[in-house]
From TrEMBL:
It is an enzyme of class 2 (transferase). The keyword Iron does not apply. It catalyses: L-isoleucine + 2-oxoglutarate = (S)-3-methyl-2-oxopentanoate + L-glutamate; L-leucine + 2-oxoglutarate = 4-methyl-2-oxopentanoate + L-glutamate; L-valine + 2-oxoglutarate = 3-methyl-2-oxobutanoate + L-glutamate. Signal peptide: none annotated. One of its GO terms (biological process) is L-valine biosynthetic process. The keyword Ligase does not apply. Belongs to the class-IV pyridoxal-phosphate-dependent aminotransferase family. It comes from Sporormia fimetaria CBS 119925. One of its GO terms (molecular function) is branched-chain-amino-acid transaminase activity. This is Branched-chain-amino-acid aminotransferase. Keywords: Amino-acid biosynthesis, Aminotransferase, Branched-chain amino acid biosynthesis, Pyridoxal phosphate, Transferase. The modification N6-(pyridoxal phosphate)lysine is found at K246. GO terms for cellular component: mitochondrion.
Length: 425
């Protein structure tokens, strides 16, 4: 074997995944890479300014509010955006085109090895008539992180955001009309490995696509969400794994347990980790509790991100930032809370519930938004979570109102930096 085929000694280090990610960025998105790799030829990067537009000639009707089509989560808007990548030439010009099926070879990497990652965002129709995204830069950055983790090509996150905004601008006016303030469309940016070589390897071809779909709100559940704590036979994420990335591989294997939970009358699984039953997330939402410590302090608590078994949710981050800014000071006559990000275990939640110290609990994520939790089942025991203001706890309520305010440009939140206005066509 030629000596040049052997890896240099300093490259045979333990950090294979981290090294691979660095190299991926330097090869496929050199403009955002921190590494200098002059020997690598520069390939075309993802570039939203090259967007080619081909509008539909058969536009479809918009489903009515509350209709079965709306609830089906199958109705997408008239258009989608796609962009393809190959290892030889990099990213091709993105296409805005009619929404519809695309063809893949049966040997495509994604169909065998789950080379897929995605994002979940919403386009909001404001009470001031404007269309907004909520902190889209955070989703685009996270999509890049997930992409890198699952061996797909990198891109400048700002270019992805421009493409998302272009699709929203195209379809927003029709599919989220001005007479539907307080409504939203769900945005799903996705990347898949389309390489048709069946070998188990990094894909040398990939496709990015972005779609907009109709979606009914899920955060108003009478009595709050009912959570079923996970059992020892299923772990969502583990240290050294990939629970922190939004890769499809995290979700498929959880659907058996989730389906059983639904069948038994629960909305979501409360995912626990390890023998100590560390509390991590509720379904595909982050999980928060408000409790009073035995010392008397009122705390808003959520799992920390240190072991990378919890997804760094945009909603989670926003709740924490809002709570640190406002709720620690005493807000709207509410008692001050301490904001705590730490590892906590189910036993602490059980004790708080038994000793009357559990105040509230809620899930936080784009899909379910801020969803109050009313009930938790853990290993044969049921715990009710107080829901002070009718259907919602007081802290849950102010958090929800503040984030909603930004999303829908409500009075007092119009120019908030978290709300990014989309200029519609
Ligand atoms: C998407 C997701 C969340 C929520 O993240 P947001 O950015 O707030 O939507 C939380 N947990 C998991 C596992 C998720 O997939």
């Amino acid at each position: 074997m030629a000596p040049s085929a052997l890896p240099a000694e300093q490259e045979t280090v333990a950090e294979l995944t981290n090294n691979g990610i660095e190299l991926n960025v330097s090869k496929t998105a050199p403009s955002i890479s921190k590494a200098v790799t002059p020997e690598v030829p520069q390939l075309a990067e993802l570039d939203a300014s090259r967007l080619e537009v081909n509008l539909t000639t058969s536009p479809r009707p918009v489903p009515g509010i509350g209709s079965p089509e709306m609830a089906s989560q199958k109705t997408c808007t008239d258009h989608m955006i796609t962009a393809t990548w190959t290892a030889e030439s990099g990213w091709g010009a993105p296409q805005l085109k009619p929404y519809g099926p695309f063809s893949l070879m049966p040997t495509s990497s994604v169909l065998h090895y789950a080379t897929e990652c995605f994002e979940g965002m919403k386009l909001y129709r404001g009470y001031d008539g404007k269309l907004r995204l909520f902190r889209p830069n955070l989703n685009c950055n996270r999509m890049l992180m997930s992409t890198n983790r699952i061996a797909l090509p990198a891109f400048p996150p700002t270019e992805l955001q421009k493409l998302i905004m272009a699709l929203c601008a195209q379809d927003g006016a029709k599919w989220l009309p001005k007479d539907r303030p307080g409504h939203f469309l769900y945005i799903r940016p996705t990347m898949i490995g389309t390489d048709s070589a069946l070998g188990v390897q990094r894909p040398t071809e990939a496709m990015l696509f972005i779609l907009l779909t109709c979606f009914a709100p899920m955060d108003d559940i009478p009595g709050g969400m009912r959570l079923l704590a996970s059992q020892d036979d299923m772990i969502r994420a583990w240290p050294g794994g990939f629970g922190y990335a939004k890769v499809g591989a995290n979700y498929g294997p959880s659907l058996v347990a989730q389906g059983e939970a639904r069948r038994l009358g629960y909305h979501q699984i409360l995912w626990l980790f390890g023998e100590e039953c560390v509390v991590t997330e509720a379904g595909a939402s982050n999980f928060f509790v408000v409790w009073r410590t035995r010392e008397g302090a009122l705390q808003l608590v959520t799992a920390d991100l240190k072991e990378r078994i919890v997804l760094d949710g945009v909603t989670r981050r926003s709740v924490l930032e809002f709570a640190r800014e406002k709720l620690t000071q005493g807000y709207k006559g509410l008692e001050k809370v301490e904001v705590v990000e730490r590892r906590f275990v189910m036993q602490e939640v059980v004790e708080a519930a038994e000793e009357g110290r559990l105040v509230e609990a809620f899930g936080a994520g784009t899909a379910w938004f801020i969803a109050p939790v009313g009930h938790v089942h853990f290993r044969g025991r049921d715990f009710e979570v107080p829901m002070v203001e009718g259907e919602c706890g007081r802290y849950t309520k102010v958090v929800k109102e503040a984030l909603r305010g930004v999303m829908y440009g409500e009075k007092g939140y119009e120019g908030h930096e978290w709300g990014v206005v989309v200029e519609e066509k």
